[in-house]
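A further point concerns the way the authors explain their paired sequence and structure data. For illustration, here is how one protein appears when written out as sequence plus structure tokens:
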Amino acid sequence: MTSTDRPVALDRIAAVLCDMDGTLVNSDAAVDRCWDRWCELTGTPRERVRPIAPGLTSRATIRQLFPDMGEAELDRSAQLQLELQYGDLADTVVAVGAHRLIEVMTERGMPWAVVTSADRRLAEVRLRAAGIVAPLLVTSEDTALGKPSPDCYLFAADKLGVDPTRCLVIEDAAAGVEAGQAAGAAVAGLRGVGGDLPIPDLGYLAQLFASRP
């Protein structure tokens, strides 16, 4: 768990950079099913995957599992896992408070982006299933290094034209919290993951923004 004692001054926040899975979109069951199936197909013990996968790309997860795997085999294995995810949108729904948070950001003219470890195809289908249209979508295809590298959040801040130190990152995984803090942003953490501003759900954060002068 990554956390700090840095206070978060919401009046300084000029943009919001939001993770997707487990944050804007509740896709936990689908993600678990796909990893379960991938483990069955590859003969990989499921318990090896559970502590690694959250917040990482499929490729990065498999690389950690099999550090000596050749690049071609790694690509095939990661693509297999992605193909399983493309086809499973059952019970993928919008996260609690997500629409309200988007509404508040829109009312206040606050730029925001979705920054995810998923590839573009997967991100688009999951956001569509949740009824979310992102003004800016940053995926694993946009930067060479994924979370916990800060590159994706730095890229998103640059695209929005906002200094990273004036961004609020919303995350539910330790790798994402590390990425956001390394980018210089404040981090709101869901699910007890830590960060600079622990929050129970996105509706709570929407309320904080709505009450801001």
User: Anything to note?
Assistant: Residues 15 and 167 are 5 Å apart (CA to CA). The first helix runs from residue 28 to 42. The chain has a mean pLDDT of 92. Strands lie at 2-3, 15-18, 25-26, 93-94, 112-115, 137-138, 167-171, 186-189, 194-195, 197-198.
